[in-house]
């Protein structure tokens, strides 16, 4: 292999005019889609159209939007680098996708679709209480705001270091454009721009893989080179929870993480809610599944070819080519495609399309959560639908500016890729646990949910901060080589074992070495694989939540609207005999006749939802009672003396 590659010349290639034109064209098309729907729907100023696309969206745009919402630029940059630095174990994530999509489509999506809520956090008030809903909403807002800033800044930084693309110019341009088309066009603009960006991402990845395979004399040759250097490895079946990437951590931990994203995350649920029926909502997940597997597999294959290309000359920290692994892929692209005008621009469009899709989906979700969960219920209960739509647009603009502003702060951090996924993983688990506790444990009450959420969040922050403070890392990179470098600054052949990490679609490995000795007795706990963060946080919340509920008074399953409890076994095993399913419903009557209860007339819930009785007492609706104002502590112990009036006074 020879040519004017950076590993031979020591010089990085930069963008040409055609590259800038194609990159700008991608941004212009995205903005144009938003402007189109803003003009097309200018007379439809209502929240249903703006936030849910009128609940009449086609399967294709919804599936494509689901596909690219969490396959951000961090994923596109990080997954190839994972293959480069470690091994192909991460490829098992495709199996986790299968479990996550099946469970989400069978259990979670039908559950929320039947509730017909705009924000998933409305469910937490219906099931528990207002404080639980507010707590979860605030956690989500902080999580999403922080993640958006990382998604906006990290790819700009990586591409600036390699391609010469202006850092702050590209960052501000992308931030303004995504805010513009999301605010103007709402859900329809987000879905169709995501669809366009999904095809751009696919085109960019295919271009890199095909050209890389040609340069290496075929993908099989690249695979053989990687295999001879310990990169092809699929058989780590260790049960040790501190093993960073084992089969169990990736498949089990990854399944929990991605189920939380597709099952209860506001951005994803809001997309499926835009479908006209449950069957179509489910189908979007099944259509999305092959796309997930394809894009992640393409990223893994690119990582293998990229490693084969640099197998004898590791470019990091040599001759100042690049300094971090998140810059590996841009350097590789400029090496193999830099001689073709415009093609590197397609790749950069691919990376920024990953950012645009994530940012637009997150902004659209915040435009639903903040008005629905915080402003309207507590500050403006009489807010009209038109005013709420305008408020959602204003919030999108505000948080678009917040994301740009936070990106400035993120620029002061060190490993932005590691920090982004660490923050997301730590916070994601407690949110998922709240929904698990509410949907599958009818005995849990509001005290249990609130204390469990705070405890789980504190525990995961402890693990995350402890791992960072003690410089704990379970990553064991494979060796890299430099004897093939032809730079004048490299005079001797040498083998280097790097301690640099990479950003995976969850948390990224660290750039730290494990501390040899420490007096902290919790070091083993800090070594927990980041892939187990979500199930660990969920387990802590459920255990603490049930314990606190036991102390403060368990709820009676027959006192809860059955639509607020998910019949898990009925959904997973619908053909199971009734005699087995009945006790598995834990006393919740999912087959009974639903009657009206106090919150029926609240505008957040549709009229078709008629919650169940409490101990057989039909409760009358009251316009003064807000959504989900069910007092978890209320337990009518005497069916004969508990009148409807007495019940309403407890709400």
Features of the shown structure:
651 residues, mainly alpha, Sodium/glucose cotransporter, 23 helices, 61% helix, disordered C terminus
Written account of the structure:
By secondary structure, the protein is mostly helical. It has helices at 6-9, 17-40, 47-52, 59-69, 73-85, 93-115, 121-127, 130-163, 167-215, 219-228, 247-263, 266-272, 278-309, 328-337, 343-378, 385-410, 416-440, 446-469, 523-526, 533-552, 568-572, 578-584, 644-649, and strands at 480-481, 495-496. The protein folds into two domains: 6-413, Sodium/glucose cotransporter (Up-down Bundle); 561-651, no CATH class. It is built from 23 helices and two strands. Helix 6 (93-115) packs antiparallel against helix 13 (278-309) and helix 10 (219-228) crosses helix 13 (278-309). The longest helix has 49 residues, at 167-215. It starts with 5 loop residues before the first helix and ends with a helix. 54% of the residues are buried.
What's the order of the H and E elements?
Answer: HHHHHHHHHHHHHHHHHHEEHHHHH
**What general outline do the C-alpha atoms trace?**
globular
User: Mind summarizing the main beta sheet?
Assistant: 2 strands, antiparallel
The CATH superfamily name of the largest domain is Sodium/glucose cotransporter
Strand content range: under 5%
Distance between the termini: 75 Å
Write a brief structural summary:
Helices cover 61% and strands 1% of the residues. With 651 residues, it is mainly α. The chain is globular.
């Amino acid at each position: 292999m020879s040519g004017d590659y950076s590993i031979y010349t020591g010089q990085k290639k930069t963008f040409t005019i055609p590259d800038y034109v194609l990159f700008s064209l991608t941004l212009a098309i995205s903005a144009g889609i938003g402007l189109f729907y803003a003009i097309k729907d200018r007379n439809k100023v209502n929240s249903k159209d703006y936030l849910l696309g009128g609940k009449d969206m086609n399967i294709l745009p919804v599936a494509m939007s689901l596909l690219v919402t969490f396959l951000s630029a961090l994923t596109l940059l990080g997954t190839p680098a994972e293959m480069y630095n470690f091994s192909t174990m991460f490829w098992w994530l495709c199996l986790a996708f299968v479990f996550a999509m099946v469970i989400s489509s069978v259990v979670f999506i039908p559950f929320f679709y039947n509730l017909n809520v705009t924000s998933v956090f409305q469910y937490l008030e219906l099931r528990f209480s207002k404080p639980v809903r507010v707590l979860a909403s605030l956690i989500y807002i902080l999580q999403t705001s922080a993640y958006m800033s990382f998604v906006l800044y990290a790819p700009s930084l990586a591409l600036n270091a390699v391609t010469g693309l202006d850092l702050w110019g590209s960052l501000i341009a992308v931030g303004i454009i995504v805010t513009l088309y999301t605010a103007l066009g709402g859900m329809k603009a987000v879905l169709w721009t995501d669809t366009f960006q999904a095809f751009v991402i696919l085109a960019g990845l295919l271009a890199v893989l095909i050209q890389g395979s040609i340069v290496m004399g075929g993908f099989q040759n690249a695979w053989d080179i990687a295999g001879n250097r310990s990169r092809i490895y699929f058989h780590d079946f260790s049960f040790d929870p501190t093993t960073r990437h084992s089969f169990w951590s990736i498949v089990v931990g990854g399944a929990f993480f991605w189920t939380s994203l597709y099952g209860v995350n506001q951005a994803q649920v809001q997309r499926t809610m835009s479908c006209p029926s449950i069957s179509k909502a489910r189908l979007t997940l099944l259509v999305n599944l092959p796309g997930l597997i394809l894009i992640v597999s393409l990223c893994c294959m690119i990582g293998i070819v990229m490693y084969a290309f640099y197998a004898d000359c590791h470019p990091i920290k040599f001759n100042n080519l690049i300094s971090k692994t998140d810059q590996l892929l841009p350097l590789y692209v400029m090496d193999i495609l830099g001689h073709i005008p415009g093609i590197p621009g397609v790749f950069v469009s691919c990376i920024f399309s990953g950012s645009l899709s994530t940012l637009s989906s997150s902004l659209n979700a915040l435009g639903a959560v903040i008005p629905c969960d915080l402003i309207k219920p507590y500050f403006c209960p009489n807010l009209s639908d038109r005013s709420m739509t305008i408020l959602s647009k204003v919030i999108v603009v505000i948080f678009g500016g917040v994301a740009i502003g936070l990106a400035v702060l993120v620029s002061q951090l060190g490993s932005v890729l590691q920090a982004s996924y660490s923050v997301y993983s730590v916070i994601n688990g407690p949110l998922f646990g709240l929904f698990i506790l509410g949907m599958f444990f009818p005995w849990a009450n509001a005290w249990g949910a609130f204390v469990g959420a705070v405890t789980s969040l504190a525990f995961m922050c402890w693990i995350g901060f402890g791992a960072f403070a003690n410089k704990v890392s379970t990553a064991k990179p494979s060796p890299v080589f430099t004897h093939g470098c032809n730079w004048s600054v490299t005079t001797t052949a040498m083998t280097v074992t790097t301690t640099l990490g990479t950003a995976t679609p969850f948390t990224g490995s660290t750039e730290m070495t494990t501390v040899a000795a420490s007096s902290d007795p919790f070091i083993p706990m800090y070594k927990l694989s980041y892939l187990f963060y979500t199930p660990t946080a969920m387990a802590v919340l459920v255990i603490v939540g049930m314990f606190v509920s036991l102390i403060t008074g368990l709820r009676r399953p027959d006192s809860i609207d059955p639509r607020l409890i998910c019949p898990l076994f009925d959904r997973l095993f619908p053909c199971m005999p009734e005699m087995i399913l009945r006790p598995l419903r834990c006393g919740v009557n999912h087959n009974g006749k639903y009657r009206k209860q106090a919150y029926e007339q609240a505008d957040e819930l549709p009229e078709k939802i008629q919650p169940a009785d409490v101990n057989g007492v039909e409760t009358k609706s009251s316009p003064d009672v807000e959504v989900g104002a069910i007092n978890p502590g209320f337990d009518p112990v005497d069916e004969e003396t508990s009148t409807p009036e007495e019940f309403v006074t407890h709400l």
